[in-house]
Design brief:
heterodimer; A: alpha+beta; Ubiquitin-like (UB roll); Fumarate Reductase Iron-sulfur Protein, Chain B, domain 2; five-stranded mixed beta sheet; two-stranded antiparallel sheet; 7 strands; 39% helix; globular; B: alpha/beta; four-stranded parallel beta sheet; 13 helices; 8 strands; binds iron/sulfur cluster; binds FE2/S2 (inorganic) cluster
């Protein structure tokens, strides 16, 4: 079969490792960067071929100047992650037939990452964030050092999902929070964080949870599910982040907007069956956080002027007794 | 077609224009809305995150209410759709989880057998109402307008709960609809991205930058307006747009329409009937581009 591949090539005026701002603050890269230079190639390959086969064929037989990074060719090493038709994917796992859109497949580096050359992007931001979560086990001291530590099987099973991570960076390159917030630790690092915080042999779980609850941590994720959709190994980073949030709250790290938000939310639903938008924002910001409160005022004013502020008298749904009974039965915010 | 209508909290709170316009377009589409007035909030993912059992029970109750009416449950919010789809998926595939929910809601006189289908209005338009009926209801073509679709995360991800593996076309309905109404769909990368709302109370500036960037990209590509099937996206993209403009230090000024408002406009309703005059970002410029005479 014949396939057409459009490759984002090196552009000396583009955003490259030396002048890029990793984690691209606003304005985002598509506004800063000059238009990409794309080069089109045609390759003849069998129907079952993957994107990486095409790139290797181009490099071997048509254009030896094309820079591609790959090693295992079987979705194990994580080196061939790139943008394919605008989303993060492993080139060696993406079948050309599935990724041909309007007669062609477009491959390029993700705009949120610095570029080294052609399809090779700089993994530095990835490892920087990764290293910030203390990605190693701090073993609990053993009563008898001659014995091994016995971990409960079911606890270890909970970590299997994260252990499948191949550090490819697909999740980070499409992470929406990271795209506007270079402080954000990112899906890969936080999934790794859960791998250690959730390990029964770890001695520093509490300290970790305190660290991960700080700005840039678990509460700076916008819950967009991009990482779940994009991870080629089923790690589902967002789900690990949510586990960390629950663990952190259970351990008493509750002085943050995330916890106050969940509290206000649960209270509202319990007492009226519905969400009360009027109290949600101020309660999450923290009632004594004057600066934070002031910042939300212009928006509240604009909305009031447009007649969009929720009714001051928050009405309950009919049958709210039923809802209260359910709350009594299964517990409220944090069970 | 009779549907169990789940309006969601926001259409009854900060976005009354959504509720009003959804009710208005039901008739020309032949949708008989039986509103579930006693159904609770879905918890918008916040409650399921902290106490999954609580969220299961609340959403199980809503699913059971629709089941007892013998009708599909219709949402008008991507977030409600995502949360209810996820719960429905879990309850249909995990009998233990279903039994747990039934033990809780049983006291309240309900039980869920797992037969309800949950569908956003956007899906119902294509899969139940049909394009012929929509076409027949058009009284005013939206020719000349360039419209950027904005789906909202939870109607797209995670794919397996939303039936997108079986029906990948669901990812293109907004674009198709815009074309059907006579307008031109703007292609841009922000259409499937996050509006920033889930983070707005935790990290306001970043949240607004996120949403604002997507609107700016659409504007760069010539969009006169954005249309969204999610009122939470609407809150961040319209309600907070002036603030987003301040954060980004850019002029934005792009109106955001709710899906039923766009349909309503094409079906010949006046902008006032659709409460298009109750937005934070004025809709006048965009409306000026369509011939408002029916
Ligand atoms: S869900 Fe959170 S971590 Fe995952 S991509 Fe979105 S913002 Fe990033
Ligand atoms: S979590 Fe998934 S997408 Fe992210 S680095 Fe690991 S394997 Fe890659
Ligand atoms: S080449 Fe190793 S993951 Fe693709």
């Amino acid at each position: 079969m014949q396939f057409t591949i459009e490759v984002g090539r090196y552009n000396p005026d583009g955003i490259y490792a030396e002048n890029a701002k990793p984690g691209a603050p606003y304005p985002p890269p598509w506004q800063q960067a000059p238009p990409r230079r794309y080069q089109t190639y045609t390759v003849e390959l069998p129907e079952y071929a993957v994107v990486l086969d095409a790139l290797i064929a181009i490099r071997e037989y048509q254009d030896e100047s094309l820079a591609v990074r790959c090693a295992c060719r079987s979705a194990i090493c994580g080196s061939c992650a790139m943008w394919i038709n605008g989303h993060a994917n492993l080139a060696c796992k993406s079948k050309l037939t599935e990724f041909t859109k309007d007669g062609k497949t477009r491959v390029e580096t993700p705009p949120s990452m610095p570029v080294i050359r052609d399809l090779v992007w700089d993994m530095k931001p990835f490892w920087e964030q990764h290293n910030k979560v203390k990605p190693w086990l701090v073993g609990k001291p053993l009563a008898d050092p001659s014995q091994e530590y016995r971990a409960d099987n079911s606890r270890m099973e909970e970590l299997i999902q994260e252990v499948s991570c191949i550090s490819c960076g697909c999740c980070l390159m499409d992470c929406e929070s990271y795209a506007v917030n270079p402080e954000f630790l990112g899906p890969h690092a936080l999934a790794k964080a859960f791998r250690y915080a959730g390990d029964p042999r770890d001695a520093e779980t509490r300290e970790r949870l305190g660290d991960y609850s700080k700005p840039g941590g678990v509460w700076d994720c916008t819950h967009c599910y991009e990482c779940v959709a994009q991870c080629p190994k089923g790690v589902a980073p967002l789900e690990q982040i949510l586990k960390l949030r629950r663990m952190a709250v259970d351990s008493g790290f509750t002085n943050n907007a995330g916890t106050r938000h969940a509290d206000a939310f649960a209270d509202s639903v319990k007492h009226s069956g519905r969400l009360n938008e009027l109290t949600l924002m101020p309660r999450s910001t923290g009632l004594f956080n004057v600066v934070g409160q002031l910042k939300t005022l212009p928006s509240a004013f604009n909305m009031a002027r447009a007649g969009k502020l929720p009714p001051l008298l928050h009405k309950s749904i009919p049958g709210v007794k039923r809802i209260k009974a359910i709350f009594e039965r299964v517990g409220g915010r944090f069970k | 077609m009779r549907v169990a209508f789940y309006p969601g909290c926001v259409s009854k709170g900060a976005c009354p224009e959504l509720y009003v316009s959804a009710k208005a377009i039901a008739e020309p589409l032949g949708l008989e809305l039986e509103e579930l007035t006693e159904a609770p909030c879905t918890g918008a993912g916040v409650l399921s995150e902290q106490n999954p059992k609580l969220a299961d029970s609340l959403n199980g109750l809503t699913l059971a209410m629709a089941e007892s009416k013998g009708a599909s449950l219709m949402t008008i919010c991507s977030t409600c759709q995502g949360v209810l789809s996820a719960t429905n998926h879990h309850l249909k595939t995990d009998t233990e989880r279903l039994a747990g929910v039934n033990a809780t809601i049983g006291d309240q006189g309900y039980s869920y057998a797992g037969t309800t289908s949950v569908k956003h209005l956007l899906w119902i338009l294509f899969e139940d109402v049909g394009l012929d009926r929509i076409r027949a209801s058009i009284k005013r073509k939206l020719t000349g307008l360039k419209i950027a679709p904005f789906y909202g995360c939870y109607i797209l991800r995670p794919a397996e709960y939303l039936g997108l593996r079986e029906r990948p076309e669901r990812k293109t309905y907004l674009e198709q609809l815009i074309g059907l109404l006579g307008a031109e769909a703007v292609e841009y990368s922000g259409s499937t991205k996050c509006c920033g709302f889930p983070m707005v109370t935790f990290n306001r500036d970043k949240s607004l930058a996120m949403g604002g960037n997507h609107i700016l990209e659409a504007k760069d590509k010539g969009a006169d307006l954005l249309v969204t099937p999610c009122p939470l996206c609407h809150l961040n993209l319209d309600g907070q747009q002036p603030d987003a403009a301040r954060v980004l230090r850019k002029d934005i000024g792009v109106p955001i329409f709710h899906l039923p408002q766009l349909l309503g406009l094409a079906f010949g309703y006046s902008p006032e009937e659709l409460r298009l005059d109750h937005h934070v970002v004025s809709t006048k410029g965009a409306l000026g581009k369509v011939e408002l005479k029916v």
